[in-house]
């Protein structure tokens, strides 16, 4: 029972699968032996079990993101591989945080186990190998780090990064011979060694064995077929900066100049070295020698450096002379060399700028760069000339070269031949028929600003009520009008009534309140008035109604009341129509009706 208890107690504090079931089995086991003893043991191991269960759930989230069926292949840059790399990095970071709060030795074992698992899938990833080795080195296990580097070089024999990191580790712990052996394995017989490997080995020999060893290897390295001007520059700057031997550095640069006179990069590095010596005479001589041998298309940066040198060391006459020579030399490379020879405002900007200080704003720099591009392409024929170039090429005829701008080689413009002028009346759908009118009635075809004849024909073919409704709709610029606003317009519009009998007239509804029957009966008292007076009042009332627009009327608030008001208006209008057809004194009665509604 003691052995079983120890096994249970180890299992319930370990974050593993089915830890909850193990805890229940452990409780049953203790209770089956002694309930009094079980109470104390369960309360003692309850916090440890809770911690193990929390760590298990957290670790399970990271493990579930890993594809355990992934093959160990070199990285191709796919999204799946990147996601797996990120999942392993998260799991490694989780294990390094020691979430179980165990001792350092046990935690290191878990981290080593996780790294070994990771390398089973990310075997060809040099960053995982480097991180694994550096973790061992930081933990104090240098021998384990060396073994990891050796395994990494077997897995990735062509990785120079891992070789430099391995040599750095050996050199940092004082094993210079082991580090030198790493460099020698990288160089091989020297036929396939890169220029960078030569430079790094020269620096290592300078640190470990001294100046003479480095100089001796440089003499051998310059005979290699893969030796570039970078090796000369590195050895010369090492002699100048570390050995404080300017004469030796100058001799190395001169020796390299005989071999790399055609390399603009080497000329610029040699000029920078002479800058540090403040040797303006040799700098000017170097530029003259280099520019006489370099082809024009490769001498752009050298001419730029030469002009900057004259701006610093020369006077105004020498500056202008060098700039003119630069234009003459570079004009041979372009299709149109006449514009290159002309002076431009960009030359002034180049002469009078210093570091990040400019004699103009950034907008001016962009404008000058645009002018330069236009000037270069001013005479080029295109199949479809764009509007921007045609408009600007007449005024912008010449410009210089701005040192800090690189205009695009090709600018794409939209096809303006397919553009149409925007016209709200060309809108498709029912909203296109909605033409605002001040009077609320259909506009005639002869009025100014009215719709076209085709629109008038469409409106005339509609029923009167529907045509009046369409005319009162506002012009909407959009696919979906506001339904509530359209309903409010319908409720406030003076839509003509449909005629019930042939020969009877229809009158528009009045916007005011409907007159009552008592108002009509009271109007009989004024039947002795003149008929012309009633007609004049009727005409004035109609003009007032027509002058009121939809916008000036308040929006309805109670739809039910508005409907009841419309029913009252319809009933009143029917009575007025019947009195008009059957009574000879309709004029005075209608006048009294209108007067009552107005009052």
UniProtKB/TrEMBL annotation:
Q: Which residues cross the membrane?
A: none
Suppressor of forked domain boundaries:
1-365
What do the Gene Ontology cellular component annotations say?
A: nucleus
Biased composition regions of type Basic and acidic residues, renumbered to the chain: 522-546
Question: What's the short name of a Pfam family annotated to this entry?
Answer: Suf
The protein's matches in SMART domains, at most eight in alphabetical order, are given as: HAT (SM00386)
Report the domain of life of the source organism.
Answer: Eukaryota
The record's InterPro entries line, in alphabetical order, gives: HAT, Rna14-like, Suf, TPR-like_helical_dom_sf, TPR_rpt
Its annotated compartments are: Nucleus
Q: Which UniProt keywords apply?
A: Nucleus, Repeat, TPR repeat
Each TPR repeat, start to end: 126-159
Record GO biological process: mRNA 3'-end processing
Q: Where is this chain compositionally biased, Low complexity type?
A: 569-599
Q: Where is this region: Disordered?
A: 389-409, 505-599
Regions of biased composition (Polar residues) lie at 395-407, 505-521
Under SUPFAM superfamilies, the record lists: TPR-like (SSF48452)
Report what the protein is called.
Answer: Cleavage stimulation factor subunit 77 isoform X2
**What species is this protein from?**
Nicotiana tabacum (Common tobacco)
């Amino acid at each position: 029972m003691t052995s079983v208890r120890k096994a249970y107690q180890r299992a319930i504090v370990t974050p593993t699968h089915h830890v909850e079931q193990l805890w229940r089995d452990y409780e049953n086991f203790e209770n089956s032996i002694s309930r009094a003893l079980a109470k104390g043991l369960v309360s003692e191991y309850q916090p440890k079990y809770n911690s193990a269960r929390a760590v298990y759930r957290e670790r399970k989230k990271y493990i579930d993101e890993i594809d355990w069926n992934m093959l160990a292949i070199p990285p191709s840059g796919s999204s799946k591989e990147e996601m797996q790399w990120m999942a392993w990095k998260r799991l490694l970071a989780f294990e390094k945080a020691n979430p179980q709060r165990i001792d350092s030795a046990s935690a290191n074992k878990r981290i080593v186990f996780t790294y070994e698992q990771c390398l089973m899938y990310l075997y060809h990833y040099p960053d995982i190998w480097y991180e694994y080795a550096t973790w061992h080195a930081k933990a104090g296990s240098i021998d384990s780090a060396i073994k990891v580097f050796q395994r990494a070089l077997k897995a990735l024999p062509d990785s120079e990064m891992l070789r430099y990191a391995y040599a750095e580790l050996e050199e940092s712990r004082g094993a210079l011979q082991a580090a030198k052996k790493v460099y020698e394995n990288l160089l091989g017989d020297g036929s396939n060694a890169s220029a960078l490997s030569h430079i790094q080995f020269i620096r290592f020999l300078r640190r470990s064995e001294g100046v003479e060893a480095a100089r001796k290897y440089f003499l051998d390295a310059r005979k290699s077929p893969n030796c570039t001007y970078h090796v000369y520059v590195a050895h010369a700057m090492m002699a100048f900066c570390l050995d404080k031997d300017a004469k030796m550095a100058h001799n190395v640069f001169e020796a390299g100049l005989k071999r790399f006179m055609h390399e603009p990069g080497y000329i610029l590095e040699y000029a920078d070295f002479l800058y540090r010596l403040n040797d303006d005479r040799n700098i000017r001589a170097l530029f003259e020698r280099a520019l006489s041998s370099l082809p024009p298309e490769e001498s752009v940066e050298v001419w730029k450096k030469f002009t900057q040198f004259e701006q610093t060391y020369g006077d105004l006459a020498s500056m202008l002379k060098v700039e003119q020579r630069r234009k003459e030399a570079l004009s041979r490379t372009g299709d149109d060399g006449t514009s290159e020879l002309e002076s431009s405002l960009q030359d002034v900007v180049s002469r009078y700028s210093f570091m990040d200080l400019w004699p103009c704003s950034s907008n001016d720099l962009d404008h000058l760069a645009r002018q330069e591009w236009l000037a270069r392409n001013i005479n080029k024929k295109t199949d479809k000339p764009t509007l921007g170039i045609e408009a600007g090429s007449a005024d912008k005829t010449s410009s210089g070269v701005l040192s800090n701008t690189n205009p695009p080689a090709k600018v794409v413009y939209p096809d303006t031949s397919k553009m149409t002028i925007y016209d709200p009346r060309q809108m498709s759908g029912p909203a296109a028929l909605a033409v605002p009118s001040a009077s609320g009635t259909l506009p005639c075809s002869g009025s100014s600003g009215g719709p076209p004849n085709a629109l008038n024909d469409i409106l005339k073919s509609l029923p009167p009520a529907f045509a009046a409704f369409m005319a009162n709709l506002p012009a909407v610029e959009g696919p979906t009008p506001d339904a509530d606003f359209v309903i409010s317009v319908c409720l406030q519009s003076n839509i003509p009534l449909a005629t019930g009998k042939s020969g009877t007239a229809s009158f528009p509804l009045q916007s005011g309140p409907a007159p009552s029957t008592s108002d009509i009966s009271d109007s009989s008292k004024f039947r002795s008035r003149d008929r012309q007076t009633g007609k004049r009042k009727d005409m004035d009332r109609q003009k007032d109604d027509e002058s009121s627009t939809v916008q000036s009327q308040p929006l309805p608030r109670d739809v039910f009341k508005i409907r009841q008001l419309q029913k009252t208006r319809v009933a009143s209008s029917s009575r007025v129509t019947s009195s008009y057809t059957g009574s000879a004194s309709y004029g005075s009665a209608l006048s009294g009706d209108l007067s009552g509604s107005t009052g």
